[in-house]
Amino acid sequence: MALALAAGGCAQLERQGEMLNAGAANLGRLPAAVPRVVGVETQSSVEHKELVAQFGGEYRFPAAERYIDDILVKLAQASDTPNQAAYKVTILNTPVVNAFALPSGNLYVTRGLLALAGDASEAAAVMAHEIAHVTARHSSLRAEREREAEVISKAAAVIQSKQKSDDVRASQRLSFASFSRQQELEADAIGVRVIAKAGFDPYGASRFLAALGKSADLRAALYGKKQSAGFDILATHPSTPDRIAKAVAAARQIGAPGVGVRDRAGYLAAISGLAYGDDPNEGFVRGPKFTHPRLRFTFTAPDGFLLENSSEAVFGVKEHDDEALRLDSVRAPAGKTLEAYVESGWVDGLLRSSVRRVEINGLPAVIANARAGEWNFKLAVIQLGDELYRLIFAVRALNDDAERRFMASAQSFRRLGWEETLDVRGLRIAIVTASAQDTSDTLAARMVAPNRPLEYFLLLNGLDPQDRLVPGERYKLVAE
């Protein structure tokens, strides 16, 4: 089903590349008399720009930036290479939980990671782990190994049989996976030691890894993705339980729980107001409704769907994986009718007799049916300006109820008025103080979360279901 829904390719809702190309073309038409500045970008600056662009751009939030910069100074002084050129951390504008390091010393943390971390020691553990990758030259060593593997693979392809060449490549993949796991565990151990030396709680690493595992489990439960119980030999990271156990063991060598600074209050104050979830300017989900203020459209999925926004498309799944949907866009081909486009072969199994012209909220559209194996598909292609928005609804049993729900969803697609695009409020992290009457349920009821607010409240605050709130303690909520 997923492959069928992806049949339209990776069409994006935005075409930034085209705008960049147009800008470059305009620069080429500058008068000859205009002085031109010619510079050579370093490899690190190119890598920095590419990574920032890939993860939604840089997110500016002065309070959090100042706080993590202060942490970074302490970590750099406590690292194995205190004379290393100054480290710099960049916050990436994405809800994805991740962190990276470049050999240059550039560190990157996502705002999703900052929202998940519970205190200063957890944030410090992430950055110390990334510093360890730099000081241990992991990135450089990986690049060297990749170059060696490429040479070996090419040589094997020339002087040996194809089977032997494939065997060599498979062996190299296994070697890389092992190398990467070793690097991650080494960086974990170094990171625990460094945060302790910098004065932070060394158990922050294991707490954050536990939160990371719970985050992955919750996401898997929401979107019907099965978690592997075993260890995948080709995985680039160790299993989370293995990393937690080793991080706890490393912390115990330093001291018993309770040593070092956590500064939960200071950390929560620094991230108060931090953007949470999708950047509203790139489209956002509220329950079954998706809105894109910049592209000026909105639509609502059928009841029971969980929506997820990405740079490629909006995806939706229903519980039990028996229904799914995808919404993406392509540029309208010049000189071609909507009917001709639908019949042009972009989707397999099209039933041509089902192609029908309709109008949806004043917009020209075509609906049709398709079939592939046990799956039935309802299609709607809606034209808004120069864009064609393609809504694909997949269902095992195509009955009257499924037809009705698809049509209701398709007919919910509409152009936003200008005033609606101005009244856009993204989600943010709000910090509240618990009263004596508050419980996890009462605070979770105040969460603006599209799905499972109680689970997300527990996740964001590092709590288990049986934990009781502490009156006067501060907790994270998701609010508008």
UniProtKB/TrEMBL annotation:
<keyword id="KW-0862">Zinc</keyword>
<dbReference type="GO" id="GO:0016020">
    <property type="term" value="C:membrane"/>
</dbReference>
<protein>
    <submittedName>
        <fullName>Zn-dependent protease</fullName>
    </submittedName>
</protein>
<keyword id="KW-0645">Protease</keyword>
<dbReference type="InterPro" id="IPR001915">
    <property type="entry name" value="Peptidase_M48"/>
</dbReference>
<dbReference type="GO" id="GO:0051603">
    <property type="term" value="P:proteolysis involved in protein catabolic process"/>
</dbReference>
<dbReference type="GO" id="GO:0004222">
    <property type="term" value="F:metalloendopeptidase activity"/>
</dbReference>
<dbReference type="GO" id="GO:0046872">
    <property type="term" value="F:metal ion binding"/>
</dbReference>
<dbReference type="Pfam" id="PF01435">
    <property type="entry name" value="Peptidase_M48"/>
</dbReference>
<keyword id="KW-0378">Hydrolase</keyword>
<feature type="domain" description="Peptidase M48">
    <location>
        <begin position="63"/>
        <end position="248"/>
    </location>
</feature>
<keyword id="KW-0479">Metal-binding</keyword>
<dbReference type="InterPro" id="IPR051156">
    <property type="entry name" value="Mito/Outer_Membr_Metalloprot"/>
</dbReference>
<keyword id="KW-0482">Metalloprotease</keyword>
